[in-house]
Amino acid sequence: QCVKNLSVVICVDLSKPETIWTTLESLLNTIKLRVKKVIAELKRDCPSEANQLVAECLARYGPDHPDKDNLDIIPVPITIIGSKYDEFQNFDPEKKKIISKTLRYVAHHHGAHLCYFSSKMEALVMKTRGLLGHLVFKTQLSKTVVTDHSKPVYVLAGMDAMSQIGQPPAIVGSRSPLDQWKQLFLSTFPQEAEAVLPEDPTKDSKYNESIIDSVRIQKDEELERFKKLQERKMREEVSSGINAEYGEPQSLSLFCITLKR
């Protein structure tokens, strides 16, 4: 039932294009798989609600949108926010163009809103606040579209088009427009290797905090004592319950025989 009220916001750092594609691809794929599974369960239990959810997302594009049959729309509201626009605006124009067009295509392909943001620019704060307010409270939403890569991009789902975004350079081996945009982006901005978290990040020496760590050790010890106490209580309860039903066993072997009976 929660999926009907779900809105997802993904934030990417425009000042670090070497992290943008990895962040977007991993999060969008995770969201897509999870939502697909939940909707499949909803279709089994309440097919009308599942169909309505999908129909509402497709309705943003309308029956006459030229791209409607070539998109992979995620059937929950997705918003992609490009942060730190105040730094991004000083990038080389050609790099800004590649980043903005790629983000527009990714957002358009998945049925997402796209909005650039900076906490240091009041106009962008207000515009982003209005978009988030719409997602949460269904307030009126500004439909002014900004696609100029030299300005803060703002495009709502269903209000962009492949013909307006343009085509990326043809790349040998690319099977789809999305893959072509991916290869162009990666060739321009090689991505950082994803950080591999240790099995227990709380024990990572890079994040040592003596006061917090000492409290954590104390709480871990308290937790272990509590777990042992609960295990002992469970064993005593099980033992007392068996004794009440079968009587006190005389030995371990006799106890096993009694259970088999």
Query: How many helices?
Result: 9
Overall pLDDT, averaged?
Answer: 86
The percent range for helix content is 40-55%
Radius of gyration: 27 Å
Order of strands in the sheet with most strands = 1-2-3-4
Q: In whole angstroms, how far apart are the ends? A: 47 Å
Structural class: alpha/beta
Largest sheet: 4 strands, mixed
Count of DSSP strands: 4
Describe the structure.
- With 261 residues, this protein is α/β, with parallel strands linked by helices.
- Helices cover 54% and strands 7% of the residues.
- It has 9 helices and 4 strands, in the order βααβααβαβαααα.
- Helix 1 runs antiparallel to helix 2 and helix 4 runs antiparallel to helix 7.
- The longest helix is centred in the C-terminal third of the chain and has 37 residues, at 210-246.
- 22% of the residues are buried.
- Residues 249-261 have low confidence and may be disordered.
